[in-house]
Amino acid sequence: MTTQDEIMGLERTFWQSMMDMDVDVAASLLDERSTTTSARGTLCFDPAEYKTMALAGEARITSFEFLEEHVLFPIPDVAIASYKAKQSFTMGGRSHDMVVYDTTTWIRKSGKWLATAHTETPEQNDLTGAA
Q: I want to staple 79 with a disulfide (CB 3.0 to 4.6 A). Which of 8, 22, 106, 115 is the partner?
């Protein structure tokens, strides 16, 4: 039986591959079609398209830390990982820090866990006027 630690290990492997710019490792963790949603919009892509996007982007993760980790297993071959991530990155020659709340849905196909959907929401400290 797969554990929370195993799924979060996959998350860390994916993030580490982004930090190392190892697009082959990242792509090997993706389903044949995946999707992501963030403040920049929604994208659907295959592993080859992911590689192209990752190499073309100018943002580079320099460090990350996961907090508040939770993994749900609604059925044996589906895992939903949710967590808070503190990340540092460079973009346009400048260093930035950001806190985000992420969720990744992993599915097990032929015994291998693959990321199929990911969402990322930036932390908002000022909720003035929020409903």
A: 106
